[in-house]
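[Automated response] Your request has been received and processed.

Submitted sequence:
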Amino acid sequence: MLFPVHNAQQTLARDVSLVLDVLPDLTDRFEVLIVDDGSTDGTDEVAEDLARQYPQVSVVRHVERRGLAESINTALDRSEGEIVFLPGPAQDFQPEALSQLWQLRDDRDVAMARRSDPSCGLRMIRREDIGRLQEIGVELAGKQQAVPSVEDIDLEIGSETGGFLRSIGSFLVAE
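Generated structure:
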């Protein structure tokens, strides 16, 4: 589970605790990686406390703010899991979504999945498909002259392939 955060002092401990309540029921091998993107509010101290308290939690800190895309790239570079979970920006973490997305992990056709409910930004991404998703992001950056968000990539996947995103129950999946 990746947590790219900036000034998340008030919510980080709660969100990590929610994840740590769910993940052990899903798998015995997991990691929680917090990337503090130059926070100025004490997020780094909360993150370090969590890492001391839980052996599954580790922390990477950007001294200066680099932005969400760079924080995600840092997290992807430092994490090791085959399946990566990434919360959406500024959205409340919903632990039930983690359990539901986990059920899709063995579907080899799924490269990335998220709930179709817009209030839940949690995504599951297969590590083997990250390169393909990053290529889409690079293409989008060229079109937009800006760094694309995960939401932009979701939309581009759907429009570029004429249905690359499909619905499975309450999920949208990229194949």
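Summary generated for your ticket: Residues 51 and 120 are 26 Å apart (CA to CA). Confidence is low (pLDDT under 50) at residues 147-175.
If you did not submit this request, please reply to this message.
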